[in-house]
Design goal:
Blueprint (H helix, E strand, L loop, with lengths): L1 E3 L2 H11 L5 E8 L5 E4 L5 E2 L5 H13 L33 H10 L3 H11 L3 H8 L11 H8 L12 H14 L1 H11 L5 H12 L4 H8 L4 E2 L1 H12 L6 H12 L16 E9 L2 E9 L5 E9 L9 H16 L13 H5 L11 H4 L3
Parallel strand pairs: 1-3
Antiparallel strand pairs: 2-3, 2-8, 4-5, 6-7, 7-8
Helix pairs in contact: 1-13, 2-4, 2-5, 3-4, 3-12, 6-9, 7-8, 7-10
Length: about 375
């Protein structure tokens, strides 16, 4: 069963979306039956905090091939700090293990942890890894800290806080020098900008009401289609985007996610959820692997861009309602052999370890 862009699905989602404005993208799949539903699923949307997903997948693939180890420790630098999460409040010099950073990125949406992992894997490695997995829409080239620097008007040659102008200046630099060189210059020129300063700028950006600026800032973001995010989560659930131990670790970390106001809030009581989402000016999204009492795994992705000014606070509730509709429409047979759902429901239920000793000696987790 496929309800791709069907009138019934479109009408149901439009009713829920109401007056929030903007564009809603949805992609969902029942991993046991193959049933799927999608609306605007091939259009690209800003990832915001959801960028941690392709970053961590890339890191775990490098762990699998021996380039990185989960027990290696990375120094926290002031120039790493980005406003979202706990590490921005920690002292420079802290030495978290790579495994700790993976958990912070996926379970707490910690933007500094994501950037530290990204730096260790290599800035260009995320897009390279996504191309190896055949994802053309996933474009990740701007770390969280760089996004905040540009949006705060702190980019190279941008001395004043600004909206549309700041985004436009960044695009000019990117076109002139290339993304990699422009990013290197941006991060080097502003290495002295502290985490505390970026926190203050984030609070100012949250009060921004200029819809033109919000639309411009959507373009200074990493992007992906709901379809490709759904497929990446499907590969994770089925241990196809990295080794089985690595995929289990990622699912387990996401199952500890602190932010549950979107997809998780719209599902029946007792549903186990591994999710990761993000929000920004005019943007709200969430992506999840879920298993209900029937032990049938679903992958649900909802992404919003261009939210009407002042309507962003209503987006989580709308996404929760959408998740409930998706879950109802994609439910599988009432009775199904638990083995048919694969390992992911066992991981979400805490019945499968996230690591398997023998393999982890070489991975740095023994």
């Amino acid at each position: 069963m496929t309800i791709e862009g069907s009138a019934a699905a479109q009408d149901a989602l439009e009713r829920i979306a109401g007056d929030l404005g903007g564009t809603l993208g949805v992609a969902a799949r029942n991993l046991a039956t193959g049933a799927s539903l999608s609306v605007n699923a091939d259009e690209t949307f800003p990832l915001a905090g959801l960028v941690a997903l392709p970053v961590v997948v890339t890191v775990m693939r490098q762990v699998d091939d021996g380039r990185l180890r989960l027990d290696e420790r990375l120094p926290l630098r002031e120039s790493d700090k980005s406003p979202g999460g706990a590490l921005v409040h920690c002292r420079a010099g802290l030495m978290p293990a790579l495994r700790d950073l993976v958990c912070l990125a996926l379970a707490a949406g910690d933007e500094t942890a994501t950037d530290m992992l990204w730096r260790q894997a290599g800035l260009e490695s995320v897009n390279q890894s996504m191309r190896e997995l055949s994802f053309e829409s996933i474009d990740c080239g701007v770390p969280n800290r760089a996004r905040y620097l540009v949006r705060s008007g702190l980019g190279s040659e941008a001395k004043e806080p600004g909206g549309v102008e700041a985004a436009a200046r960044w695009r000019q630099l990117e076109a002139r020098d290339g993304r990699e060189a422009a990013l290197a210059r941006l991060l080097d020129d502003h290495a002295g900008v502290t985490g505390a300063a970026l926190l203050r700028h984030r609070e100012r950006l949250r009060t921004m009401t200029d819809p033109g600026a919000a639309a411009a800032f959507e373009q200074v973001d990493n992007r992906a289609s709901p379809h490709d995010v759904t497929e990446l989560l499907t590969m994770m659930a089925e241990a196809r985007c990295a080794s089985a131990p690595s995929c289990r670790l990622m699912v387990e970390a996401m199952s500890r996610q602190q932010w549950r106001a979107k997809i998780a809030a719209g599902l029946p009581s007792g549903t186990r959820v591994a999710n990761l989402g993000g929000s920004d000016a005019g943007v709200s999204n969430d992506a999840a692997i879920v298993c209900g009492s029937d032990h049938i795994p679903l992958v649900l992705v909802a992404a919003w861009k261009g939210l009407a000014a002042g309507r962003a606070p209503a987006a989580p509730g709308a996404i929760a309602t959408i998740a409930g509709v998706l879950c109802d429409r994609l439910a599988g047979p009432a009775q199904m052999d638990r083995a048919a759902s694969g390992d992911v429901c066992r991981v979400l239920a805490g019945e499968a370890a996230a690591s398997d000793g023998a393999a982890d000696g070489a991975r740095g987790t023994s």
